[in-house]
Amino acid sequence: MKLRFLGTGTSTGVPQIMCNCPTCQSRDERDRRLRCSAMVTYKDKNILIDCGPDFRQQMLESGSPSLEALLITHSHYDHVGGVDDLRPYCAMGDGFPIYCRADVAGDLRDRVPYCFAEVPYPGVPAFNITEITTKPFVVADLEVIPLPVMHHRLPIVGFKMDNLAYITDAKKIPDSTLELIRGIDTLVINGLRIKDHISHMNLQQALDVIAEVKPRVAYITHISHDMGPYAEASLRLPDGVRLAYDGLVIHIPDQFDQDENN
Q1: CATH of the domain at 114
Q2: What are phi and psi of 59, to 5 degrees?
């Protein structure tokens, strides 16, 4: 299994409009961050995690890959603002599969009602929504386990897939979720900036979670310009922890293979 970081920025992206800070003026390509999204590839099938307003650009830069389904963490615009651009993928069967919480499904129907009309206009995107809870479900032969977390006061989800856990926009992670990911091989987790934030973990809070979970390797995502330039911010990280960046592809060993080698 592998994961491609399509976007690793926060809601404003990096560089941020009308900002002249060192991060936004950086010429390092790793400091150019689209809105947060990722693509998991398993057995040559691609599963999208979140579909923000940069989705079209992300797909073109990735070579316009095929997609099996979309998993949505929550319905904030920077995570769902690109759903209309899914229309090239919507020719399949009963519509393009989306897996999300019930509240997210309701928000999508309110935001793009033309996609759910009884008699839709020809050519509009067609979606087949499956409402998820905390129970595991299967997408493209891959078991997905929802990971409940809190985005300030908003309950949202991350996802565990085999030996990968992907969590974004969390401020607090319940003990029950920590137990689900403890000792996992690869952890992707949000770390917005150095200073505290009301609804996102800062870098130190993300590092505290990593220290408790003890993954083999961890990647920080959903990063704002306030984190500082990539080259400088990376120096703050302990061994086994890295800042993710747009276009980075990582490989995750199968849990079966890891068990066999232990």
Answers
A1: 3.60.15.10
A2: -70, -40
